[in-house]
Amino acid sequence: MFENPITSEFKQLFNNAIDSIIAENSLSVPCRLKYSGETNSTLCKNCEYDPISKLSANIYKSGGPIVFTDNHICPVCMGMGMVKSDASEILHMAAIFDSKYFINWSTDVARIPGGMVQTICLLTYLPKIRNANEIVFDTHIENYGNYTYERAGDPMPAGLGDNRYIITMWKRK
Length: 173
Known about the structure:
With about 170 residues, this protein is mainly beta. It has two domains: about 10-40 and about 85-170, Pnp Oxidase, Chain A (Roll); about 45-80, no CATH class. It has helices spanning about 10-20, 125-130, and strands spanning about 30-45, 45-50, 55-60, 80-95, 115-120, 135, 150, 155-160, 165-170. A hairpin with a 4-residue loop joins strand 2 and strand 3. The chain is elongated and about 80 Å long. The termini are far apart. The mean pLDDT is about 85.
């Protein structure tokens, strides 16, 4: 009767349920992974760019955020013509903020400190999560407070035999 209780149909039902939870329009939240050390450069929106010198032309660009006198150094890019920002990326993950509902794969449940968050996502996100220095949960509310966390250990593979998902613990910075 209980020789093989986890059938392929049961595994497919489990995968469908988790896929539904982590889908972009479901119970997942948009999370910004930040990769310090890697930078993106974009043209300054405050000044005209000189493609010959590859620097700012130090001429105010109409509609820019900070007006300045032409032939003076642009206050936004400091005359560089480019603005650097840390690289980041938004991924949708299921985030569990209450430790009572964490998916526990070990016996260390009682030792989970407050302020921890657990995420569940596809295994394909593993390299991105390992390379991220921090994460901001729910980008819709990130301007209302400090919702920045750092990874608390390596992501753990999860699933019913096929390890399609990873579970990651995050601690508040």
